[in-house]
Amino acid sequence: MADELTYYAPERLREFSQRTFEHFGVPSADAKLASEVLAMSDMRGIESHGVARLHTYFDMLTLGRINPKANVKIIREKPATATVDGDNGLGLVVGPKANEICMDKAEKSGSAVVSVSNTNHYGIAAYYSIKALERDLIGWSMTNTTKLVAPLWGAERMLGTNPIAIAFPAGEEPPVVIDLATSATAYGKIEIAKRKNAEIPHGWAIDKHGNMATRPEQMVEGGALLPLGSTREMGGHKGFGLASMVDILCCVLSGANWGPYAPPFALRQEIPARSVGKGIGHCFGVMRIDGFIEPAEFKRQMDDWIRTFRATKPAPGTPGVVIPGDPERLAEIERAKTGIPLLQAVINDLKDISTKTGIPFE
Amino acid sequence: MADELTYYAPERLREFSQRTFEHFGVPSADAKLASEVLAMSDMRGIESHGVARLHTYFDMLTLGRINPKANVKIIREKPATATVDGDNGLGLVVGPKANEICMDKAEKSGSAVVSVSNTNHYGIAAYYSIKALERDLIGWSMTNTTKLVAPLWGAERMLGTNPIAIAFPAGEEPPVVIDLATSATAYGKIEIAKRKNAEIPHGWAIDKHGNMATRPEQMVEGGALLPLGSTREMGGHKGFGLASMVDILCCVLSGANWGPYAPPFALRQEIPARSVGKGIGHCFGVMRIDGFIEPAEFKRQMDDWIRTFRATKPAPGTPGVVIPGDPERLAEIERAKTGIPLLQAVINDLKDISTKTGIPFE
Fold this sequence. Notes:
The structure is a homodimer. Chain A has 11 helices and 11 strands.
């Protein structure tokens, strides 16, 4: 069965990722960091961004499109800002390092913003907000990605799915972890519909002419995803506005490739017509809670906030209100017991890496 | 005709607003500031937030629910943060003053975040981002508002329409000004449908039981608006996540009333069951462009960004991609010539203020 799942110990997958990165000369500490970003994604049930992507990183490193020994450096700064040049390194290494710089600055000044150029895909946006939580900070994280999304009323791919994440610590309750792509849906859902030969809902995507797509192939073959809100009537201009905000903060501010010029992440994706900067871009923002309010009071109120929203009267036929971050937290608890479920296609990819590198997998 | 429009000189309306605020003892400089926020809204074609709201401010001031002589003060700060207590003043005065504090701090540190409690409705979110543009800064602005929106899978009003604005300066092109409510639609659109006795689109609102509303009355009578994205399939959890982010940054961080406990803005709205803080909350963030990149380079890239997106292949049957801020900028040009169009109902409200205060209007 194509959809059958095999369970793997998280630490075993993390170590395989680390060794794969090391194979290309990524320094051990960096390779470990990168593997941790992928591992968190798998643990939180965001399989699309975990080891399922390792083969793409493998391809990019094999082709020399990513610099394994990147020298991540600050190229401009003020007390509460910095621009970081990622030296075309793994986003999984550049992102965590730039986020650290932002947290260090925020600890000194109370808040800080760090924009990053010359980087590559950085994994799940929530990783960075969760790292801020570990230091009792509020952190937001954004990145641009390869073009997939049309602006409202546009008929071509111009923006990535440009996610926004932010997390807030609570006291007795688990933290609120918000992580959302600014597109109406994920490309992965189009792929699932294609595999099942199913129609897609009105509002997810357009075909190559700019008309609403009803079949997944229409999007895949030169069409585009729609921004969050989908149509003008339902607020598609808002999703476009949010994606634009992410694009400008991550790329125009840092000197990275914005909009349709973001370089491709996978081999099958086309190379953009021109380059307007270096690599893709991220943007991080961090705030000290005690720069605003007593942290104990903040957390007490967050507990109250979470309990109040959890107690919202549920809409008929639904499970009721879900606090942002709850599904991923529950997945984490589950996977700590069961291990990480992988599809056969992903296992085949990992075995292929094993064959090519000699790193044992099985 | 109920929908007939009469045109008024912008300066005349602004002055009438200023004198109305002064009537209640608001100091002249503050009254002028407040009137400018309303005037910008009318000029930009956001009639719902301009003088059309003056009677509500009038009501709140008459009842002593807003402090006309508010002493806006910083109650906690670090170099790049502050919490501002608005002393229950007009949001139209507290907001601009807190935004100034944020801009001053960002000019020193490179970036800053200011959260505001004990305030009231602050007009259009874009006003604050536009003020930052005037100082060549990038500024974002958020506020919570009285509850109107259900979380995804909830059956009751728990959040406001919680807008987010941010603006980016360009060189030769006009700035990109993004300003969006995190709900699928505006309450004003429900009111228009009600007046026209029309149905509302699937995804705008639910009825009081939590089922999708098809008639505007179903939302008005105890129902709720839906968050941006509307349904789970179309990303309604994302709109809920964004509205939650705004709620927490504006209120939990500052000590204001969050979620369903935001105090009402209009007399007809119910008083919340309990109070969890002071007034409503805003949050501002400001960044120096030269904290990241040469401003001339940023603006050159923004011109390129704007021209590239404006040249997107248009979807059939649409006017093509609209750059955020363009519709409001065009309204501003138009209204500078024609004056501000007001509905008879708004004119009647202003005349009522005139009768009750003795301030001439006509």
